[in-house]
Amino acid sequence: MTSTESAIGSLRPTRQRTAVIDALASIVDFRSAQEIHALLETREAHVGLATVYRTLQLLSDAGLVDSLRAEDGELTYRRCSSHHHHHLVCRGCGAAVEVEGPAVERWADAIAEDHGFVDVSHTLEIFGTCTACATTAAGS
Questions:
Q1: Mind listing the domains of the chain with CATH numbers?
Q2: Mean pLDDT of the chain
Q3: When comparing pLDDT for 139 and 1, which is higher?
Q4: Cβ contacts of residue 47 below 8 Å, gap of 6+?
Q5: Which residues are within 8 A (CB) of 19 and not within 5 positions of it... i.e. 6 or more apart?
């Protein structure tokens, strides 16, 4: 089984879905639907922008990609590991690092319990500036 086939999982593997998953597999940072569409155009994949949006939403709903609302409000996407994690995201270049957060997990569970909530979930993204962008800014 190829990585694309395993990424699609139980979804019908259309040409467009395969092209979007292959594009996501080639990038390490979060990208907007427009950026992914532009990447597909450079590859002559011929997938419409509306199809990219629908495919990304479908993949996100299926848990096959992570979505992240950037500080400017735009929704971005990236293939990530399947275990629960959080992201440290560079404001400059968009590079993202998956991070574990056991203290966050304990805090979320305690808050939920204190307020009588069950079956809770959460997301956490931390925004900052990576070393490369900080170095570039310092040299300007």
A1: 1-80 (1.10.10.10), 82-140 (3.30.1490.190)
A2: 86
A3: 139
A4: 16, 19, 20, 37, 40, 55
A5: 40, 43, 45, 47
CB 58 within 8 A of CB 24: no
Percent of the chain with pLDDT over 90: 44
β-pairing, 75-78 vs 66-69, is: antiparallel
What's the farthest any 2 CA atoms get from each other in the chain?
Answer: 53
- Residue 62 backbone dihedrals phi, psi, to 5 degrees: -80, -5
Residue pair 75/125 in contact (Cβ under 8 Å)? The answer is no
Dihedral sign for Cα 72, 52, 36, 127, please.
Answer: positive
The three-point CA angle 105-64-59 to 5° equals 125
